[in-house]
Amino acid sequence: MPNIICFDLEGPLSPQDNAYEVMGLVRGGHRLFEVISRYDDILTMEKRENYEPGDTLSLIVPFLIYHDIGEEDIKKISDKAKIVDGVNYVMERLKELKWDVYIISTSYEQHALNIADRIGLSREKVYCTRFSLDHYREEIERMDTSLIEDVEKDILEDLYFSLDDERKIKNRLDRFFWKDIPKTNLGDIMRGVKVVGGQRKVDSLHDIARKTGKNLRDMIVVGDSITDYKMLGEVKARNGISIVFNGNEYAIPYANVGLASIDMRFLLVIISAYIYKSRNGVIETVKEWERRHDEFMRIPEDIPKGLIPDDVREFLMEKKSDEHFLEPYFHYLENVGEEKQKEVLRIHKRARSIVRGDAAKLG
Questions:
Q1: Within-domain flag for 343
Q2: Can you tell me the distance from the alpha carbon of 170 to that of 173, in angstroms, rounded to the nearest whole number?
Q3: Helix, strand, coil % (nearest 5) of the chain?
Q4: What is the CATH number for 215?
Q5: pTM above 0.85, yes or no
Q6: Residue 237's domain spans which residues?
Q7: Does an H or E element contain 106, and which?
Q8: For residue range 40-89, what is the model confidence (pLDDT) as tens digits?
Q9: Using CA of residue 105, residue 70, residue 194, residue 26, what is the dihedral sign?
């Protein structure tokens, strides 16, 4: 049976935060999204009942409908998305090695399926947020827009400048999303958008395990943000390989392996270790890379053969003299102290900001 690897999309595969960029089509849309994303973080951290990280994609639906944004707009924004360096190379290698590759993404289907097509992954291997936006727009031909107009004004003129004031953000947006909107037709529409984030990503993992006859301990997952922490934590708890790639503070504590890099092909170090030495080999390899990082970066030609595939070694030797190239960092993350977590976060933040740009600041 083939080995299984599951990727989050936004971050590990493509740097674009599609919903953030789609919201940028409207005046002040990026600011609106940043406040709603902050609200998403607040609800996630307080463990709001029936709320999952990433439900931001449901919360922005009233604004998309109000501003007459459609599925074609989402697709056009997606067409502009870059692919993370090295991803296409890794996908080709995984295909050659007969791995079973999946995407588990919070993204709207118009974006997730587009990226899957561009990296050569079958659409049936994609778990994402199904989103019939054009149908929703047709359902609501006449809508009282005053609620949306009022909250937009409050977000742009007040809440955006108070991103650290959790109470102010929560009070205003709680009223809008859980008291005002449920009284309208938009309430039913928002409840119908099942965003694949948080626990729903875990459910997707279990569905893959059921279909393939595998256990979670036999899987590798790759994630980077708040929507992935439950997925990362679940695989880690089942003794699988849980990789945080250029992660933020929400994701790093839940992985057992960290990779900070501007090029995904360094994932092949872990893939190679897994093929030849299974889970324990991955841990040993990561620990050795962490311990000997400076030596490996200084003289990549002397990295022991069992610790790096030949093609990755050649790539590292080629890039060593490139002043714009950021060295890859591997970290073993199980049972680490607060100081090491801070150091890992610092390194990941640097790589994350280079790869993801403005989207790096989102949860």
A1: yes
A2: 5
A3: 60, 10, 30
A4: 3.40.50
A5: yes
A6: 199-361
A7: strand 100-108
A8: 999 999 989 889 999 999 999 999 999 999 999 999 999 999 999 999 99
A9: positive
